[in-house]
Here is the input.
Amino acid sequence: MAYFKTPQFLHEVFGEKQSMLEVSCTVLFALVGSWLVYFVADIKLDNWQVILAFILIADVLAGCIANFSLGTNAFYAKRPKNRLIFIAIHVHIVAIAWLLSQPMDIALIIWTYTIVTACVVNALHGKSIQGFIAANLMCYGIFLLIYLSLPTWFLMVSVFFMIKVLFSFAVDHYRQSTQ
Here is the structure.
């Protein structure tokens, strides 16, 4: 697969090099996924809050895919402090809940679980068990989301938020693991 150098302003999203296939798949998933969430939510794009919420939803979906790419993974593998900062600043689910009038206590439960477990997974960097623990915590997180009885569209966004931060981003998918 041919890789190209990404512009510096896109390094946090796509890393220093990326393939057209990975960029195309990321953008396509963000657009199609946002449209599906919009369709299921049956919300009209009639004010700045809804428009901003759907921009954040597209970002969640794009990151869910981009964080699995070789370029993004390599960029953050070389910058462990940046990876931790990236995890910490992910308040998307809380912002989306606020913008679209969802219960903040539920959004905070989802956010807290995701951030705490992503930090646990991130702390296992370089260990062969990292991916397994991330998958295990992701599965528990899905049970949590189902238990919370969320509206379908918010469940969709919450699942992808959790995948993005906990599994897609916190795991170093391409490093040679050690015992």
